[in-house]
Every structure is written in structure tokens, then in C-alpha cells.
Amino acid sequence: MKKTGIITCIECPRGCRVTVEQDGDSIKVLGNRCSKGEEYAIRETRCPMRTLTTTVRTTFPGMKRLPVRTSTEIPLKDIFFFMEQINRYTLKERLPHGAEISCGLPGDVRLIVTGDPRPEAGDPAHWEGSAGVILQGGRTA
Ligand code: SF4
Questions:
Q1: What mean pLDDT comes out for the span 33-56?
Q2: Pocket lining: 37 vs ligand 1, CB cutoff 6 Å
Q3: CATH number of 50-136
Q4: For residue 62, is pLDDT > 50?
Q5: Prediction pTM value
Q6: pLDDT grade, residue 135 (50/70/90)?
Q7: How far is the CA of 40 from the centre of ligand 1 (A)?
Q8: Is the minimum distance from the CB of 41 to ligand 1 under 6 angstroms?
């Protein structure tokens, strides 16, 4: 059965609105200004990927959670599985911004510290408007 959808290409600031026609395994892309848009639309249709940005629990006094992101993009369909794994993990050491955390995620995906772990930085859990999960790349999940 033929399906048609529209995707905004995010490979460059032009943000072309690209039409994707899918008929079984066949994917036709229209409206892209360059080949990157076609590649992006096909990838986004077959297996959308996202960088997962979230927080991890810590044992630090005054800082219940620390902001992190995944070291690579992960399949959008696996986001909730990854969140379950991350929510089981507790960080016990104050690692610096940019440090990698190996916490047993599949595919050797690691977490990268994106927050400030210093005690004077305050607790991100109390930041106004902080979100539980942010997905970067492509359309909103
Ligand atoms: S299709 Fe090409 S020109 Fe258009 S947004 Fe994507 S990368 Fe940019």
C-alpha cells in the first residue's frame, strides 16, 4: 500500500519540506534541493535516529540528577528501552562536563555528561522548565 508523508530536512538551514512516497520497500523523495535531502528522508523513513538528552540520578548531595546525552544517535523506536536502562543507573562519582559514562547501554552507547557536576552549580532537578527527555534530530517523537 502506498503511503505519502512530508518531512522537513534538517541537513542544512534551508529546511526543505520533502515529500516521501513509500510503496513497500520502494521510497520516492520529492522536493529536496540536493542529494543530502533524499538520503535524510530515506533514513528518516526507514529507521529514524535521535540523540537522547536526559538526566541521570546521582548520589551527590544537593544534586539529585545530572544532565547527560547519548554518545551516538539511537533508533527512535528504542528510546523508551534506553530510558528504562538509564533510569536504573545511579552516578556515584562527580565526572567533569564531557566525560563518558558506561552504564551498560546496548551497542556500546555511552552517556556524555552535559551538565555542570560541581556542587555550586545547583540541582538541575529544580531548574524551572526542565524536561524529562529531549530528542534531538528530525521530527518530534
Ligand atoms: S534538501 Fe538539501 S538544500 Fe534542502 S534542507 Fe536538505 S540539505 Fe538543505
A1: 96
A2: yes
A3: 3.10.530.10
A4: yes
A5: 0.77
A6: low
A7: 9
A8: no
Nearest protein CA to atom 1 of ligand 1, as residue: 37
pLDDT for position 129: 45
Domains in the chain: boundaries: 2-46, 50-136
CA distance 128 to 59: 21
**Residue partners of 30: CB distance under 8 A and separation at least 6:** 18, 19, 20, 21
Reduced 3-state DSSP string for 53-104: EEEEEECCCCCCEEEEEECCCEEHHHHHHHHHHHHCCEECCCCCCCCEECCC
| Ligand 1 center to 17 CA (angstroms) | 9
Residue among 48, 11, 42 nearest 27 (CA): 42
Maximal CA-CA distance, the chain: 57
